[in-house]
Amino acid sequence: MTHLQAGLSPETLEKARLELNENPDTLHQDIQEVRDMVITRPDIGFLRTDDAFILRFLRARKFHHFEAFRLLAQYFEYRQQNLDMFKSFKATDPGIKQALKDGFPGGLANLDHYGRKILVLFAANWDQSRYTLVDILRAILLSLEAMIEDPELQVNGFVLIIDWSNFTFKQASKLTPNMLRLAIEGLQDSFPARFGGIHFVNQPWYIHALYTVIRPFLKEKTRKRIFLHGNNLNSLHQLIHPEILPSEFGGMLPPYDMGTWARTLLDHEYDDDSEYNVDSYNMPVKEVDKELSPKSMKRSQSVVDPTALKRMDKSEEENMQPLLALD
């Protein structure tokens, strides 16, 4: 075991070997091969190429060198293409701070039975008057940056549960194709994290409609890991044990405290709202969406017919429920 694997338990070391092809004898050579590819992309500013940083990209791509390098390049390219998103990219930024305090995202204390971190989002908590959808995405990316420092999570990954209870059609109308693709590019295509499952619960029909919009932009692996549970929490419990879930998800634990993860990131600044200026963070989402859309987004925007999609029949809905697929 090298010093780069020092943070891993014996069980996780074995998992890294079996599932990710991680070999301590060739670890430094693997990292160097990825680093040597940096010169092939002079158009990208690679701000970090240290061993520990490159290692998380290798783990995210099962030590396939070229795939790891492509993810590394996309990570920095995404940031170059969306510079405004990463200005004041810190927990105390007013928009990010407000999103964090409303539980975007939340993080459960217990890991699942695969050792994965469980992130939770309660969609209806979004206060449109205080922060934008882009701020929510920034808060999620910032949180992942902090969590991915843990080598255990680099290997074991994450699970995401999104509760759509009380999420209104008006709120859903703000989830434009450009905004959705911005999130997909930031999370699926440009971040070195392994997502073992994305679970939708209590989703209304118009969230099914939005799923049909984003589905073409999802990789096959991602599509297989999205589970649409609706009101059937028993199907959620088959994948995530209720013993570690809060009561909102039919679990055995108390209701989730939305400020749990925010307090971790903000510490003593959690209750300090002196920086908040509602005027500067009340820009219409449509304008932010237009301004921050990646230049590489060349697909035409899809138009959803709510009337037609509302008629989605039960069999079609069931076809959207994928089977569990794990690496």
Automatic annotation (TrEMBL):
Q: Which GO terms describe its molecular function?
A: phosphatidylinositol-3,5-bisphosphate binding
Where is this protein chiefly located? cytoplasm
Keyword match Membrane: yes
Q: Where in the cell is it found?
A: Cytoplasmic vesicle, Clathrin-coated vesicle; Early endosome membrane; Golgi apparatus, trans-Golgi network membrane
Query: Region annotation Disordered: residue ranges?
Result: 289-327
Q: Where is the CRAL-TRIO domain?
A: 96-257
GO term, biological process aspect, one: lysosome organization
Name the keywords, alphabetized: Cytoplasmic vesicle, Endosome, Golgi apparatus, Lipid-binding, Membrane
In terms of InterPro entries, this protein maps to: CRAL-TRIO_dom, CRAL-TRIO_dom_sf, CRAL/TRIO_N_dom, CRAL/TRIO_N_dom_sf
Keyword Membrane assigned: yes
State the annotated membrane topology for this chain. Peripheral membrane protein
One GO cellular component term, please give it: trans-Golgi network
Known partners and oligomeric status: Forms a complex with clathrin heavy chain and gamma-adaptin.
Relate the protein's function as given in its record.
Required for normal morphology of late endosomes and/or lysosomes in neurons. Binds phosphatidylinositol 3,5-bisphosphate (PtdIns(3,5)P2).
Q: What is this protein called?
A: Clavesin-2
Whichever gene encodes this chain, its name is Clvs2
